[in-house]
Amino acid sequence: EDFLTLIFKAMMKDTLNSSHPVSSAVQSSEQIEEMFDTLSYIKGASLLLMLKHYLTKDVFQAGIEVYLHNHDYRTAQSDDLWDSMNEITNGTLDVKKMMKTWIAHKGFPLVTVVRKGKIISVQQEKFLYRVEPENWTSDASYLWHIPLTYITNKCNFTHCINAYLLDQKSGM
Fold it and tell me: Start and end of every Peptidase M1 membrane alanine aminopeptidase domain (predicted)?
């Protein structure tokens, strides 16, 4: 419950146009200090939870083990974690490509689901709670690779979770 409260506080900050990506190039020590704030840590933790849920606990755990083994006693970059996850998924999912859309963009997407009979369509757009005119920039090009999971009425709710990766502005 406490973690959810932290996530929602971080999301509120991340909805502002003055937010920043989890990962970006820095030019000065001041920028480094700005990057390591609570937003970065909480959003980063949330993204790892999202990835764990999408990949499944066992696959995620195996990716972490590969990462720790490959980089023990050495420095690492964020791409190294994604590369380790890619090793485990054997090319069935480009984890690096997916996660780059989350760590390189500020903010998060709003996903709209529309049902027309048996047809379900989804679309994404950048969510902004409040536009700050002095900091506003167009984010029309933002595109996230959003892992969606769902169940249908043909499932027993424990063993039949379906997954879909929304990697375009809209899909079915």
Answer: 7-102
